[in-house]
Amino acid sequence: MTEFELHPQLLADTVEICSLRLCRVLMMNDSTYPWLVLVPERAEVREIHALKEADQQTLMREISHVASVMETLFEADKMNVAALGNMVAQLHIHIIARYEGDVAWPGPVWGKVPAKAYVPAARGDTIAKIKEALESAS
After folding, report:
1. What is the spatial distance between Cα 65 and Cα 100, in angstroms, rounded to a whole number?
2. pLDDT tens across 39-62, in order?
3. CA dihedral sign of residues 4, 135, 56, 71
4. Cβ–Cβ contacts within 10 Å for residue 70, how many?
5. What is the DSSP annotation of 91-123?
6. Phi–psi pair at 116, nearest 5 degrees
7. What is the C-alpha to C-alpha distance for residues 76 and 84, in angstroms, rounded to an integer?
């Protein structure tokens, strides 16, 4: 059986925050939006329907949990949740806090503006804030 490995593009574009029961929680290295990515730690899974039923249920609970925490933590106007996989086939779910008036509003975030990498201090602070919020909401 193949072991779980994070896709190289996800490794390049994100910073790890923590692991939940099923998913690895990653933060996109783009300070334009509060943006997390959940990756079920299952080898060679490309689609939600390919997960076992118990894992599908766990995934939905984890998506809801993370989205709720993000909405509260970042006082978002809207939470965007998407599992596209057109560029990276490995199953991963984007959870993005959106604001009326952000640079991409009301459209999708992809391709609107170039990614703006976090400066190291802000990245560390944001990771700590998210990690603490996820743990205290559990």
Report:
1. 23
2. 999 999 999 999 999 999 999 999
3. negative
4. 22
5. --EEEEEE-TTSTTTTS-STTTS---PPPHHHH
6. -115, 100
7. 22
